[in-house]
Amino acid sequence: MGTRYEVLPIPAFPDYTHAFRAGALTFGVEYRLLDEEAIAQEYGPDARAKFGNTLPPGLPAQIDEDGVSVHVFGPDGLEYLRFDCFDDYPHYHYIEAREGRQEVMEFDPLADGPMRSWLVACLGTRLGEMLTRAGAGDVAAEWDPREHAEVLVAVASEIEAAARRGEPTRAPALMRLSST
Fold first, then answer.
1. Sequence-ordered list of residues with C-beta below 8 angstroms from that of 55, at least 6 positions apart, any chain
2. Which of 30, 28, 122, 136 is nearest to 74 (CA)?
3. Where in the sequence is the domain holding 169, given as residue range(s)?
4. Which of 6, 43, 115, 125 could form a disulfide with 85 if both were Cys (CB 3.0 to 4.6 A apart)?
5. b (16+ CB within 10 A) / e for 93-104
6. Residue 99 lies in a domain
7. How far apart are CA 76 and CA 68, in angstroms?
8. Is 91 within 8 Å of 109 (Cβ atoms)?
9. Count of structural domains within the chain
10. Which of 3, 9, 4, 168 is nearest to 97 (CA)?
């Protein structure tokens, strides 16, 4: 269904990621710039080889994207899900962080509507199932969206604020994602 890689995605940039804690989970919202330079900085000059020299369908050979990214972290600090609400290539990741691999899923806006709206709905209704698919069933078992409705509203608000800003913005110190 998606494209599998035996490598983890580029991590969140802590200084630019607004963190929202909700029980066992932390949601991180950042406006992300993703280009060939950022990829080379993370993976080195042989970045394509680390991804099996394959790109997901729809992704251009030269990557130059930006948009809102939402990260979902467990209590262990590992990222299990990521939603990249990019204009040209919206997609999301099931991150099997404990195994060091991921599956990238192309988002279909014709079938699912605007990605940011779809994402907010997923956080409230399908997050447990998605965490389980990412190999974090133990984390999913601790999640109850009804207990954290206010946090989900704050996350949705920051998603829209980040989209309006249209550029990376340093998160306030108290809201910054911990780099540990």
1. 3, 61
2. 136
3. 3-175
4. 115
5. bbbbbeeeebbb
6. yes
7. 24
8. no
9. 1
10. 9
Say how far apart CA 180 and CA 174 lie, in whole Å: 15
Kindly state whether residue 180 falls inside one of the protein's structural domains. no
Task: Please state, in angstroms and rounded to a whole number, the distance separating the CA atoms of residues 103 and 150.
Answer: 30
Place of tokens 């809201």: 175
Side-by-side strand order, sheet with 3-5:
3-5, 101-106, 91-96, 79-86, 64-73, 25-35, 18-22
Query: Of 10, 42, 25, which is closest to residue 124 (Cα–Cα)?
Result: 25
CA distance 59 to 147: 37
Beta bridge partners of 87: none
- State how far the Cα of 130 lies from the Cα of 125, in Å rounded to an integer: 10
**Residue 76 one-letter amino acid:** D
pLDDT band (50, 70, 90) for residue 179: low
Place of tokens 């990214």: 69
> What is the tens place of the pLDDT at every residue in 65-112?
899 999 999 999 999 999 999 988 999 999 999 999 999 999 999 999
